[in-house]
Amino acid sequence: MATKGNNLSEYDKDTIPNAKDFRFGIVVSEWNEEITQGLFQGAFDAWIENGVQKENIVRWNVPGSFELIYGCKKMQESFEMLDAIVAVGNVIRGETKHFDFVCDGVTQGIKDLNVQTDIPVIFCVLTDNNIEQSRARSGGEHGNKGTEAAIAAIKMAQLRKDAKFYKG
Asked: pLDDT tens digit string along 96-142?
């Protein structure tokens, strides 16, 4: 989704499923903590605003964005009652190809978890060219990608619930 002209924190509350009985996990990278904490707060606030109980939110921290994959996998295995998990990270382009390898690895890893397991994992990893872009997307002028991820998690939790109903 392009950010220009969009506020990542805006959504129509009337289109959001009732989230009061959902349980969410969130795995947060400690790297670029200023940014990832802002993203976490955006997600947390959106969940609370939409009726999720604080005790139904589990947070784990991991050292960096690459470790999000393992953290999310272990959270899926440890908390089978979770309805969705949000992976929160931030990778800022530097002078080497490290940025490309981390971004590709995390993207593919989160995709793999979604294909191979039953608990949806929402990708909330900012991959920006500089810290200013990251700040703008973690509670700054473009809103908060964490809010957007939390809303996506609610919608995917509802989809998961509906799919189980149809399966019987």
From this structure: 888 889 999 999 999 999 999 999 999 999 999 999 999 999 999 99
Q: Is 98 a residue of the active site?
A: yes
CB contact at 8 A, 88 and 28 = yes
Q: What percent of the chain has pLDDT over 70?
A: 95
For the record, the structure tokens of 54 come out as 């604080």
Tokens encoding 1: 């989704």
Catalytic residue among 98, 111, 161, 164: 98
- Rg (Cα) of the chain, in Å, rounded? 15
Q: Are 75 and 58 in contact (CB under 8 A)?
A: yes
Bridge partners, residue 91, by sequence: 127
